[in-house]
Amino acid sequence: MLKRWRLRPSDCHAGVAPFNYQSGSSVRGRPGVSQHARKRLKSLFHLGAMAAIRARGELQDYYQPVRRCGKVKEGKNKMLVLNAVRNKLIHRVYAVVARGEKYDKSYVSPLA
Q1: φ, ψ (nearest 5 deg) of residue 23
Q2: Each residue of 50-104: pLDDT tens digit?
Q3: How large is the angle between the packed helices 78-99 and 7-14, nearest 10 degrees?
């Protein structure tokens, strides 16, 4: 069953995949996330992302506005970066479930 579980539909299911608002050739406004997501799943990933940016680690370094290298420091919208953190969490959950192993913080991809 996991081989059939693709990442993009699961991102949509959790409400983190961005969509453009457009009709034909007109593009109205900036992209936003789908409102047709499972609210409970979306809120759980939101709470997980909030905890991840408060705890020490690479996701905090990715988000932090006070550090030199954070995305918010670069001028990105805070909710846009938080949505990216939620998406990173979904990708990590998918990888752990697909491999059937426990999460390892110090995991290095064999491709790297």
Answers
A1: -140, 105
A2: 999 888 888 888 887 655 667 777 777 888 888 888 988 988 888 888 888 888 8
A3: 130
